[in-house]
Amino acid sequence: MSSVSQKVSEERSQTIVSSTKSITLRIKRSNPTINSEEKFDEFIVPIESWTTVLDALLDVKSHLDHSIGIRYSCRQASCGSCGMKINGRPALACFTKISELDTDSITVEPMDNFPVVRDLAVNFTRLINNHKKIMPYVVSKDSEITPGEGIKESLQTPDDVEKYIQFSSCIKCGLCNSACPTMAMDTSFVGPQALAQAYRYIADTRDKGKKTRLKIIDESHGIWRCHAAGSCSQVCPKGVDPAMGIQMLRSYLLGIRD
Amino acid sequence: MKESVVMKIHYGTALGAVFLTVIHILMRMTQDFHESLEFENVLANYEMLGYAILLELLLILVSVHGFNGLRVILLEIKQGPTYEKAVSYGCVAAMAILIAYGTRTILMAHLGMV
């Protein structure tokens, strides 16, 4: 017990000694399973030039309040777990350096358009269901591995790959869905994440599921409910452009492209 | 009907309505603007067969486009199978009523019954 306390104490003192600056971190707290109360807790956190919002949150969680609900994993913008609203804008906590925010007060809230599980952790059921709905895999009768015939490669030219490669960078963090104005209103809307992934597979020359996917998204709460606000593309941490994918899909449905 | 077909109609009616509205506004230039809006002159427009057809087409295009737009807005505000069905059928019915009433007006004016 005393060794644990000593270790925590050392960690805190090391951070403070080496730090040059502190910021106020305001964290939105709520637990819908208990009551509908929402409040902001404020913490003073020492930061360095390299400190990310996730680092600051974990610092608070380690030293000041262990009960903060937060989902995170890789800490390098690969897993898509730590999406949240940082100073009003959806972003990955691990990919947002505090020094770049250029402010002494940072407010973190759970992502919009997702049901809150607790504090900053949200429920991804709707996103995952919509993602599954558009068949996020290459549909093809040809197998790359045929028993007795060995391995057959499905070759693609660099131009073929270029058509979809940016869309395959999606990490399902949900920031695009959080920023989408239609998602806020229409609870049945398929969402920019799923639509971008629909385009990713339709644009893949190996895929034969174009007709089925276009049928799935061509319904009253499908692709046509997008207002082309473009906020999904603005907030994507991986450089995916869902708004462009949606326009490409629309051009297929309008018969402008084959 | 597939949503893509509905949206093709939506975009088509918008383009058509803009085109016909331009012709409709250009027709004001055949005489002084205020004069063109006098009761007798407006009635005279309706009595021209070509102009009456233009107004009828404009009425249909604007009604189809407008009520589909309203349907889309209402579908975004609230969801649910019963509500969505009511909105879709309600908008089609309102559109049909408006077109019927407008057509009646155009016909009456064209036939000199006003």
Tell me, rounded to a whole number, the average pLDDT of chain A. 91
Biggest sheet record of chain A: 5 strands, mixed
Distance between the termini of chain B: 39 Å
Order of helices and strands of chain B: HHHHH
What is the name of the CATH topology of the largest domain in chain A?
Answer: Fumarate Reductase Iron-sulfur Protein, Chain B, domain 2
The two chains with the largest interface, and their residue counts, are: A-B, 15 and 13 residues
How large, in whole angstroms, is the Cα Rg of chain B? 17 Å
Describe this structure in words.
The complex is a heterodimer of chains A (258) and B (114). Chain A has 2 domains: 2-122, Beta-grasp domain (Ubiquitin-like (UB roll), Roll), CATH 3.10.20.30; 125-253, Fumarate Reductase Iron-sulfur Protein, Chain B, domain 2 (Orthogonal Bundle), CATH 1.10.1060.10. Helices cover 36% and strands 16% of the residues of chain A. Chain A has 258 residues and is an alpha+beta fold. In chain A, 34% of the residues are buried. Chain A has helices at 2-18, 53-63, 98-101, 125-133, 158-162, 175-179, 181-185, 192-202, 210-217, 231-235, 242-253, and strands at 21-30, 38-47, 83-86, 89-92, 105-109, 116-118, 121-122, 145-146, 150-151. In chain A, helix 8 runs antiparallel to helix 9. Chain B is an all-alpha fold. Chain B has one domain (3-110): 3 helical TM bundles of succinate and fumarate reductases (Up-down Bundle). Chain B is built from 5 helices and no strands. Chain B has helices spanning 3-26, 33-36, 39-47, 49-77, 81-110. In chain B, helix 1 crosses helix 4, helix 3 packs across helix 5 and helix 4 packs antiparallel against helix 5. The longest helix of chain B is centred in the C-terminal third of the chain and has 30 residues, at 81-110. Chain B starts with a helix and ends with a helix. At the A-B interface, loops of A face helix 1 and helix 4 of B.
